Amino acid sequence: MQSFTRYLLATLLCGFSVVCVEAQCPARPDPGTVVQDPLSIDSVNGVLNAEFTMRHSVDSGGYNHYCINYETAKGEVEAPTLRLNQGDRLILDVKDRIESDDDSSGMAAMDMSGVPICGDSGTPTLSSTNVHFHGLNVPPICHQDDVLTTLIQPGKPAFQFNMQIPTNEPPGLYWYHPHVHGFTEFQVNGGAAGALIVEGMEKLRPEVDGLPERVFVLRQQYLVPWVPGPYQLTINYQVAAGPTFPDPIIQMKPNQKEFWRVANATIQDFMPLQVQFNGKPQQLELIALDGYPLDKPRFQDTILVPPAGRAEFIVRAPSQDNVATFMSNAYATGPTGNPDLQQELAKIQVSSDAEETQAKKTPDANSGSSVGPIKFTGLDEVKPTAVRNLYFSEEFGGTNGPIQFYITVDGQKQKVFEPNEKPAITTHVGAVEDWIVENRALETHAFHIHQIHFKMLEVDGKPVVDQDLRDTIEIPFWEGPGHPYHSVKMRMDFRDPTIAGTFVFHCHILLHEDMGMMHKILVLPK
Amino acid sequence: MRISLESWPSRVMALLLGACIVNGVAVGADQPHWVVTNDDVPPRVATSLSFFAIGMSGQLTLKNRVLLGTGGIAGGYFAANRVNVLDSGNAECVYASVAKTGDILGIVLKTLVVGGSATGSMQDTGASNGVGLAMNANYLYASFTDSNHIGTFSVLPGCKIKFVGDVSVKGLQGGFIDGMAIRGNIMVVTYGDGSIESFTISSGMPVSNGDEQNSTGSRTGNTYPSGVDITQDGHFAIFGDTSPFTIVEVSDISSGKLTPTVVFRLGNKMNSSDVLLSPDETLLYISNNQSGTITAAFFEKNEGKLTKGCVSHALKGFDSNWSYVASMAFNETTGTGGVVYIAEYGAPSSIGEVNVKSSGGKCTLTESSHSPVVDGNSPGLLSIGAFPPRPF
Q: SS3 letters for A34-77?
């Protein structure tokens, strides 16, 4: 069945049907209230063992909620933050209890013939789910971080993810979200996403040592995600849609420094983040991007975080007399892109009486075990074994925006992703490759590859000053005739034998991913 | 699964309401020349066809509105034209599709009353991007752009139609059916993903000629055939590409099958999804959907070659009152067409009027002083037609 039909069906069946299911998801915070950190679940004695239940409901405004619930003594809470240390084991049981209109069972997503199944059999539908651990450098295999074959079906027994966080995993902020091809956008649009933190940042970046820490998960909700139009941003599930709604509130003590860990879990919003005092952007001390600590902190007043990206930075609160805001500025996505509008994410309320954030303080850098070398170090000294050229492109044939989305390895035929396709790229463990990804579309895209981080080398053919390790990067839109295509050059590190297997690279604008702007890469064992 | 939840009530409503004469102008025996718009009004409000009378100097005046029931979508594919005019023998009909319901209605031009309607099978839907139409005196073909089906309907007296059957189609890269044109026994379609295909329609239902292929231009990664027109003699299929440039591709189909396309880059205006040959086939008009302009290219019909001609200025109201241009129609059935009418997508929408002059290998496209004419009935106009239609 075609994608748009699928979406239309989804809309007809649930999008506008506020009575189609009873509320299964917890109530979300009222507008204008103090932003609360997500509940944290910490590993104990090297193991984090938890059970999640995926549910669905529709709120009074017609927004679909897809919630990843965790049972506590006070009831179910949504999308807790998972906190683990390097080398810890994550055991996560995930049950799918999405209840939808029965007719949705006919909403077949893709032809899965020939695709091995991990988990439950059956055809993927809007009610199917799975989990991708975005940014984690773990194996792409069943019960770990495999999105190609893992399927969790409604009403079935829990599916268990069981993986070890690598002992050299970079400390930082990661996130988890569903990744069933064809339906990812719907579920993430509904809020199905949470943070995952690998502890130990203070050992590599002592600047954060002892600071109060906050986790902000920024999400985006559309009434119908595939239709261009108004959307709402949320911060830890509180709607940030001023002036229609009162702003969320972040309380800080005057001049206090805090360590903010921000995940862009939106389905398509490129977010130039700022903290402004009296309308003036302040210097933020950037500590890590995409869960990878920087070699050294840098100060900048704007941090661009593409969809799926993360930024971790130190914020100093203003003195009591200032009006301060946490902002996402407008971002130009090109003639065929959805407009990303300026939005105040929260008002920063400064008071010496402000409650201490309920989130933990970063531990003492001298406590616990030390952190050894982390993955992907020394990449700039490695000679690449291959250079590949890829490009994004799309076809714009009507008023509903682009209708075909491609990511293509140069020289191959443009095609949309099919679950039973052969890998577009085959390489082997030990390879280090330079990829140049070009954007030939009139819309900005966000390149993401599973399982590894990549080192930024060049933008538009020019070396970058900050060769950061990323897992998601924006590639600006093509301005049209007479202008060159924008591009990024990245060093991809396939040396780790544990990532051998088949995984994907794609645009992290989730509509694009669902529509097939994605392909497989096979990393053969050595 | 059938999407259309409203098709039966809308059909009944359309039949009951028939014609709604908004200006009190009677439709007499002396048929005026019309530009007809498929107003594509989104659900909850009735959608309609609006009839604009063509004046002596080509200017348009809204005269009549025929309600079609509910179920428009105010948008969709540029190249899926949803209004088609039949002028064959005694049959003078306008056929129009309603996107959400999939209904296709025939309106009797003499009376402006709905003569009949039909829907495809349960699986046929174009609810998010429209149902395109192409027809001859015997059959009407409907491209259901969401379910990827081509429906075949037999044309009956009194502007009625009857569903015959449908075939499932798909682009080589999984694309959706987009543009569609017929001439003689051949149908040519585009899939929006760079691929094109032809069918034999000699027995009514389309049968693939087994020639599905990617266009030459699509290999560059930023140009894809979208709209299609076919020369009067059926020698060439001409594809307007959705592209950052003005790009047209031509395939020699004289063998009854598609051959590899030849690419013509005709300018730098953005998008060329709608193409229309002039009645004398000397000019190809190209709707630059995202630049708000019309390009005319000289067409050499024996060789199938195109050369650069002329480009209009951005039409009045572009980017302020409306945002895209789409399908085109003429006020004359001979020569270069005289005036090119073009759908301007906005809320409300409008129709641009562009005067054509062509001689000695040069041409001009000049918007008339009374252009555009507002189509207050349409919040998203993409499809227009003219009566009498181009002869082929």
A: ECCCCCEEECECCEEEEEEEEEEEECCCCCEEEEEEEEECCEEE
For residue A297, what is the domain's CATH number? 2.60.40.420
Domain span at residue A21 reads 3-198
CA–CA separation, A494 vs A477, rounded Å? 28
Please indicate, yes or no, whether residues A118 and A42 belong to a single structural domain of this protein. yes
Q: Can you name the residues that pair with B105 across neighbouring β-strands?
A: B96, B117
User: Which residues 294-353 in chain A show a CB within 8 A of chain B?
Assistant: 335
This prediction's pTM = 0.82
Residues 21 through 60 of chain B touching chain A, CB cutoff 8 Å: none
Q: Which of residues 477-496 of A touch B (CB under 8 A)?
A: 478, 480-482
**pLDDT of B176:** 93
pLDDT (tens digit, 9 = 90+) per residue, A480-520? Answer: 878 999 999 999 999 999 999 999 999 999 999 999 999 99
3-state secondary structure of B217: helix
Token couple for A374: 């982390």
Q: Across the interface, do A12 and B3 touch by the CB < 8 Å criterion?
A: yes
The 10s digit of each residue's pLDDT in B328-365 is: 999 999 999 999 999 999 999 999 999 999 999 999 99
Q: Which residues of B touch A401 (CB under 8 A)?
A: none
How far apart are alpha carbons B84 and B385 in whole angstroms?
6
The percent of residues above 70 in pLDDT, for chain B, comes to 92
The answer to whether the Cβ–Cβ distance between B147 and A5 falls below 8 Å is yes
Of A9, A404, A480, which has the smallest distance from its Cβ to B193's Cβ? A404
The reply to whether A181 and A212 lie within a common domain is: no
Out of A350, A368, A394, pick the residue that ends a domain. Answer: A350
In angstroms, the separation between the Cα of residue A267 and the nearest Cα of chain B is 21
- Amino acid (1-letter code) at residue B47: T
Contacts of A140 (CB under 8 A, 6+ apart): A146, A148, A450, A451, A499, A501, A502, A503
If we measure between CA atoms, which residue out of A202, A231, A189 comes closest to residue A369?
A202
Please tell me whether the peptide bond between B372 and the residue prior to it is cis, using omega within 30 degrees of 0: yes
- Min distance A397 CA to chain B CA atoms (Å): 6
Backbone φ and ψ for A187, nearest 5 degrees, come out as -75, -40
Partners of A349 in the β-ladder: A251
Judged by CB atoms closer than 8 Å, whether chains meet at B242 and A395 is answered as: yes
Nearest to A442 among B224, B244, B345 (CB): B244
Report how many domains make up chain B: 1
DSSP character at residue A361: B
Count Cβ–Cβ pairs < 8 Å, chain A vs chain B. Answer: 111
Contact status of A4 with chain B (Cβ, < 8 Å): yes
Q: Tokens 């299911």 correspond to what residue?
A: A21
